[in-house]
Specification:
6 helices, 8-stranded antiparallel sheet, alpha+beta, disordered C terminus, DNA-binding, 8 strands
DNA sequence: CATGGGATTGACT
DNA sequence: GTCAATCCCATGC
């Protein structure tokens, strides 16, 4: 049932893929985590890098699904995306936050922090915690150094909350961000109305 | 060839 | 809440 959730996600349109990837796992080396926040980007809308077309920078986005698009943000951070949709379409799911699962000590050392909710609670934070950098751009997510996997078997199906994307200036109205309801590892709290919906899922925020 | 902007974070007020 | 750090690449002259 959920054992192939990550595989099914790679076959879907990007917005559905973003929702489907919430709850799946990402691993690099000994470190891994459950995806708790994603955003969809598609070449049909101006917030996506691929909106401008095929360039050296956006080339990865137009390749076949199932590879990583890793790019530098604000000159400092590396951000990890899952490329989806058929070759020739520029679309990817930004991985915005993880709930740390394994390799916590390594994550703490890389991040220089202790609190688990600070380790992977942002797109730049999780790449630092997992040791993912720009050299892993275009590498496969199945059978490559970065491993995309199904949800941990002991977990209930996550309740995803939808909202607008973060940190962009164009196409800000598209509700293409997905979070696990009530999870404290998400990068930023969502609006009050959505928070109420999240609390309704029975996962108290403490 | 020079310039401007960005899918962010952490430190400081 | 505000702000600097830092660099690839698209754009324009």
């Amino acid at each position: 049932m959920s054992a192939d959730r990550h595989l099914r996600a790679l076959e879907l349109p990007v917005v559905e893929a973003a929702r489907m990837l919430v709850g799946c796992t990402i691993a690099h080396g000994e470190c891994s985590g459950v995806i708790v926040e994603t955003e969809a980007y598609h070449d049909s809308e101006p917030a996506c890098h691929a909106f401008i077309g095929l360039t050296p920078r956006t080339k990865t986005l137009f390749e076949a699904p199932g590879i990583a698009y890793v790019y530098r943000s604000y000159g400092i951070h590396a951000l990890l995306n899952v490329v989806v949709e058929p070759e020739g379409v520029g679309a990817a799911v930004l991985i915005r936050a993880l709930e740390p699962l394994t390799g916590l000590d390594t994550m703490r050392a890389r991040r220089g922090l202790d609190r688990p909710t600070d380790l992977c609670s942002g797109p730049g934070k999780l790449t630092q915690a997992l040791g993912i950098w720009l050299d892993l751009n275009e590498t496969p997510l199945l059978g490559g150094p970065i491993r995309l996997g199904p949800p941990p078997p002991d977990r209930p199906e996550p309740a995803a909350v939808v909202g607008p994307r973060i940190g962009i200036t164009r196409a800000v109205d598209l509700p293409w961000r997905f979070c696990v309801a009530g999870n404290r590892n998400v990068s930023r709290p969502w609006p009050p109305g959505l928070m109420a919906a999240a609390l309704g899922q029975g996962q108290g925020t403490g």
